[in-house]
């Protein structure tokens, strides 16, 4: 038994420590493809902040790397284990600690699933907007670590916009408390937003205070069908230009629609090349006017058909279809999901260029995404047992990021860098920004113990 | 002539360098009271990023501190000169470089005044929300450096929520480009939001890309009068609890109203102890309903009178009154403006405790602020030529911050730390957070050249 495991046994209760190789196996990977994963020396199932502190201190004592993990639903390999590391899983820290309806915040442990938290606050007439498609199986801690987005970002912004305060275990085992419970506050550097999105490389989040909004009105939903992805992209640009306020604006192409129909036994129209889904939660006449505006703009921009959902249930069904898209594509083969975000004025160009990549490389790419944000998830589907196809898949995946950068976009809108896009990060941000990343990493984690090799290579 | 001035002469065009003591005098102070200010060795009036780089490199060569300055409208002494320093003023970098209506962003130099930028984007049907009361005489660069708030934060958030990308000159003279022009993006650490609010201690902002929103509907405005500040505070809590969406919710007490009447020759009602101003920009029936809800809640919570503005001009006049409050109080004597933000549920407690401080210390305190955010600006007014009164003013100023912290609030909601609240910062954030601040400062500015002694003492 290694020294670090021996020390962990001394400082942790037995139920917080896993060293059995079979049990540890499931803690090796998140949901990213083509990312290496090592074999951990131990997995710590922290029940409280003190367990995280104890584990970090034990790891620091022996210079062993620490890999923090939420629900392992990540798509960039940020939660993948390293050989001989201590995995610190936060999945058992799954309590909602406080919901404050007047000051509108919730205090939560990181292991709570996004949908669980969203439903708990909804019961009190409140709304936690960030809603990744994976909300039923992703944790708040993971959302914080990657600064997750979701479907309603187009109106309500992303995770970082809702984080008021954090409790963070630092690399030296100390507890950092960032932020505050007030709406505004500028006392000192914004350490909260520095930790959010840092993918476990600067500290381990053990508690979060998240801002809430009042519940929204019942949404009105519509779908519009287009003869080509580019036409749908052009309609989106006109919708954005109009300034109409939507709470959701998503796109799915025919490949994706077919996959969802098969997976969810749904009956979405497969004759169109692309479908937009738009939602307004403005309520009453305002919501109806928003949807009418979108329908008009879609018709003026080559929509084949516009269908308004008859009721909320029908609207929910459309959203369920969209949320299931990645799982549905997973059924067709191995998937690699891109996460490029482009300036919205370039969406049609991006869709066209992505479709060309699929044609040129003769590979399936399902085009879907948060169109209203310009955050697209072209998903390459392939047979991983065919090395030649796997190679082309990798080329397509990279080519799509390259197109994103060429159009003034970013390699990742919400999934993070992890190990999957480390080299691409350097390309996107350049040497000065990379060097600043390294300086900050070294300042907060001088031994390079926290999730080393993720995001930036030191 | 000192070595650094000699080097500046070599590397800068003559119009970018001021060394005449009389001309330099006005570059010594921002608008904070009781903050020491030194005499600079030189003032650099940068016209372009390269001038900032050259000045930073010259200062670094001789180990001379650099103090970046915007419009010197700050209220915490962050822009005050240090003895022998190089002041780098950004006021001549005052061009708006690009307005992009579809992608909804503006690229601007830092010296542009907030109101100038706001009007320029409004001409294209766009809206830049952060609107400090000082918007006519504060610069975007200063807004970024202190993460300014304003009147419409209650609905639209603060400066950091609108910053997409920055160009920053680092302590070593290199140019850091943070962020991107897309709506979303998580590639790497959020360096943008780390720089925002860092008060010139981590880098000097030379360009910013700011997100815009579509123009809002015409606002509806109302005022409500109350018999006591505490009653007004209780009404605010009920307004927040109701979830009604307001674009503005401000409070002014009788002291402030009287000062504004005298200063602006206005005719605001002086018989009430406190006045709330509420605005909805939801437009049409929704806006009318919002204002009706607020009026109803005010009446149910002891309002003496509720008055809806007849038209937009009357509403604008109320806002103009609120924006002039600090300048009006300045006419009554020397002022020290607090900037405490408390959880909104504690507003009535905060107002009551602040009034008690004024009574106990027999000193004038004008109570005003962004009530809807819990961000209050109690302003101590005193005769600075009377040492005993000045002492009590300082005690009152500090006591109000203490109350804010006791109520779970922060010492600064939007004005920043500067030198004025350095000791208070340590009290608010504690030793671990302070040590993380110092690590980050040392990582980005190892020689401690950028605005040393501001925010954190190294």
Model description:
Chains A, B: GO terms for molecular function: (S)-2-hydroxy-acid oxidase activity; FAD binding. Chains A, B: Its EC number is 1.1.3.15. The structure is a homodimer of 458-residue chains. The longest helix of chain A has 23 residues, at 422-444. The first copy, chain A, starts with a helix and ends in a 14-residue tail after the last helix. Chain A has 4 domains: 3-89, Uridine Diphospho-n-acetylenolpyruvylglucosamine Reductase, domain 2 (2-Layer Sandwich); 96-214, 2-Layer Sandwich (Uridine Diphospho-n-acetylenolpyruvylglucosamine Reductase, domain 3), CATH 3.30.465; 220-406, FAD-linked oxidases, C-terminal domain (Vanillyl-alcohol Oxidase, Chain A, domain 3); 421-458, Orthogonal Bundle (Vanillyl-alcohol Oxidase, Chain A, domain 4), CATH 1.10.45. Chain A is α+β, with helices and mostly antiparallel strands. Chain A has helices spanning 3-11, 21-25, 49-61, 114-122, 140-146, 153-156, 191-195, 229-242, 254-264, 284-300, 312-323, 325-330, 347-361, 387-406, 422-444; strands at 17-18, 42-45, 66-69, 86-89, 96-100, 105-108, 126-127, 163-169, 175-179, 204-211, 213-214, 220-226, 248-253, 274-280, 303-308, 334-337, 340-341, 364-366, 368-370, 375-376, 379-382. The relative contact order of chain A is 0.12. In chain A, β8 and β9 (175-179) form a beta hairpin. The model of chain A has no long low-confidence stretch (mean pLDDT 96). In chain A, the strands form 5 sheets. Chain A has a 7-stranded antiparallel beta sheet with strand order 15-12-14-13-19-20-17, sandwiched between helices. The first copy, chain A, contains 15 helices and 21 strands. In chain A, α8 (229-242) packs across α10 and α13 (347-361) runs antiparallel to α14. Chains A and B meet through β9, α7, α8, α10 and α15 of A and β9, α7, α8, α10 and α15 of B.
């Amino acid at each position: 038994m290694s020294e670090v495991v021996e020390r962990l046994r001394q400082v942790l209760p037995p139920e917080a420590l896993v060293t059995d190789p079979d049990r540890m196996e499931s803690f090796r990977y998140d949901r990213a493809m083509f990312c290496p994963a090592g074999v951990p020396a131990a997995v710590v199932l922290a029940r409280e902040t003190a367990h995280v502190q104890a584990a970090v201190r034990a790891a620091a004592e022996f210079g062993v790397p620490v890999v923090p993990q939420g629900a392992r639903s990540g798509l960039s390999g940020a939660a993948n284990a390293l050989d001989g590391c201590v995995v610190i899983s936060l999945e058992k820290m799954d309590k909602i600690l406080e919901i404050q309806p007047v000051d509108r915040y919730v205090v939560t442990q990181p292991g709570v699933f996004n949908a669980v938290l969203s439903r708990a606050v909804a019961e009190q007439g409140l709304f936690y907007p960030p809603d990744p498609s994976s909300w039923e199986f992703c944790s708040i801690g993971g959302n914080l670590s990657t600064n997750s987005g979701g479907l309603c970002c187009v109106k309500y912004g992303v995770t970082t916009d809702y984080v008021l305060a954090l409790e963070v275990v630092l690399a030296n085992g100390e507890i950092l408390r960032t932020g505050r419970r007030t709406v505004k506050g500028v006392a000192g550097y914004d350490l909260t937003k520095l930790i959010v999105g840092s993918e476990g490389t600067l500290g381990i989040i053990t508690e979060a205070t998240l801002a809430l909004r009042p519940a929204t009105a019942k949404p009105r939903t519509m779908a519009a069908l287009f003869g080509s992805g580019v036409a749908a992209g052009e309609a989106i640009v006109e919708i954005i230009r109009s300034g109409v306020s939507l709470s959701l604006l998503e796109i799915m192409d025919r490949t994706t629609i077919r996959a969802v129909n098969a997976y969810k036994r749904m009956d979405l129209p497969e004759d169109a090349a692309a479908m937009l889904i738009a939602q307004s939660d403005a309520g009453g006449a305002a919501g109806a006017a928003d949807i009418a505006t979108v329908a008009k703009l879609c018709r003026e921009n080559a929509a084949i058909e516009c269908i308004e959902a008859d009721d909320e249930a029908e609207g929910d069904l459309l959203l369920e279809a969209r949320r299931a898209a990645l799982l549905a594509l997973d059924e067709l083969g191995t998937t690699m999901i891109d996460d490029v975000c482009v300036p919205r004025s370039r969406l049609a160009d991006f869709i066209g260029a992505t479709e060309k990549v699929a044609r040129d490389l003769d590979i399936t790419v399902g085009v879907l995404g948060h169109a209203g944000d310009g955050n697209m998830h072209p998903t390459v589907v392939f047979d991983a047992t065919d090395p030649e196809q796997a190679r082309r898949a990798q080329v397509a995946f990279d080519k799509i990021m390259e197109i994103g950068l060429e159009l003034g976009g970013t390699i990742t809108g919400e999934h993070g860098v992890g190990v999957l896009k480390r080299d691409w990060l350097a390309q996107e941000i350049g040497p000065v920004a990379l060097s600043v990343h390294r300086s900050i990493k070294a300042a907060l984690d001088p031994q390079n113990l926290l999730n080393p090799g993720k995001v930036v290579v030191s």
